[in-house]
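job 3f2a | input accepted
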Amino acid sequence: MALVASSAEAAQVAEQLLHAHYDFVPLEEADLVVALGGDGFILQTLHEMLERGRVCPVFGMNRGTVGFLMNEWRIDGLAERLDRAKSFSVPPLEMKAVRVDGQVVVSPAINEVSLLRETRQTAWIEVSVNGRVVIEELICDGVLVATPAGSTAYNFSAHGPILPLNSTLLAITPISPFRPRRWRGAIIPDDLRVSLRVLDPKKRPVSAVADQREVRGIDRVEVAIDRSRALTLLFDPEHALDERISMEQFAV
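job 3f2a | predicted structure (252 res):
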């Protein structure tokens, strides 16, 4: 197993403690990765794996803030915890963004792909699902497509639905929609392709963001699940991530 840690002081201290108790190999030789940090860091680790083309299971321990995707930090019994860990498959989204100048940018997203207005002007966006136009003109600050793993993040803050982690669903959620006034989003099967076309990209420029990677000056974006590069997260059996995600619907 390999060990990676965020730059936060708590993560750096935990990294030193684990190195004193266990043997680790370089990341490129690992069959499993232990990540120390918060939710943002584990997403960063997963993205780095996708970029390197070497994907293996990740067991996170919380040395950050929220730690929704992380297990409890403990130094003892690591091998036993890994043996007992429950695995969750997390297929990422693939964003194919076409800029106004014709440049094409392809990027994975584990949480969500979002389109956001770049100026004070509202965005005008056409929404299509599997080639069928479902919203001719969405006037809004933006719109996002979220996975179950990302449904409790930006999607939830934009009043989108929480999706069970083991569901084969995607959420399409508008961000501060003005028209259609009553549309609050949709839940669709994750084998469908979502297309988002910017209707006036020069006067009302829009950027596309795949998790943390931003592409500006967007003409259109296609979003679909990429099952060929599914990621695996490991959790202590008592962590019950799927239950925690479901229970977030009742948080007040």
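job 3f2a | Residues 133 and 245 are 31 Å apart (CA to CA).
job 3f2a | closed
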